[in-house]
Amino acid sequence: MNHISAEKLLDSMFDGVYFVDLDRRITYWNNAAERITGYNRSEVIGSRCSDNLLRHIDANGHQLCQHGCPLAATMQDGKTRESSVFLHHAFGHRVPVSVRTSPVRDDAGQILGAVEIFSDNSSSLQILHEYERLKQDAYLDQLTTVGNRRYGEMTLSTRIYELRTHDIPFGVLFIDIDHFKRFNDQYSHKTGDDVLVMVSKSISFSLRKMDSVARWGGEEFIVILPGASQVIVKSVSERIRMLIENSFIMAGKDKLNVTVSIGATMSRPDDTIETIVGRADRHMYLSKSRGRNRVTEDEDHE
Prior knowledge:
302 residues; alpha+beta; Beta-Lactamase; Alpha-Beta Plaits; 2 domains; 11 helices; 12 strands
């Protein structure tokens, strides 16, 4: 049997793998790590994970690379750990990943560093299959690769029908990028496009499998949450807002942070597409008037 190096084996894995030494300096970065994060190994080898390269955050938006790093804790106490976090992709959006950390020891049992194995939790295959169907039916927004307005209207019609015939409620979020004109005017339309793509991906990675997102027009998106309660609507809204707030893109040497204002509403028995979208839109504008980067729900408006 031909000898296969450990590096070739690791590069054949579907999961991302990287090693750090005791100084948390990255010494190895496999092919899957490049694919999942968008960072080439030449960009990360020799840098410290404590430099906040991947900028892991938890579901509450806490910056784990600065406080609560699983790798640092594993090297300190020698225990393996598993957690779900959101890493920062090279293109700016957040990617949900499952992270497992283990200590690396020498022959004497002394800890030399740690290894992190991480896998994409974004249900990418299901998303790709859905996008292929959208492409065939001309329901895809070409820039952001989420559904277009036609797709959003079709999905809303289906949910309204389910509401009237089976009494199945749903929620709608109206999302608008804050100060979007500034990105186009101060930088370029290409930068504006990059912001739209980053926001659309961050929204998509925040949703449940049955949820839908569509670009409604310009810098506006709608999210449709079938079977959702008010609690779920609030939770998803805040997760979207938090993930986008903790994401950014680079325009040359400038780091551009992005926020969104969100209006969230629950379906009502007599709703039409116009009434439910209009209500969510009004809530969104109230979020704008209250300082942006926030969520306004039905109860906040009333």
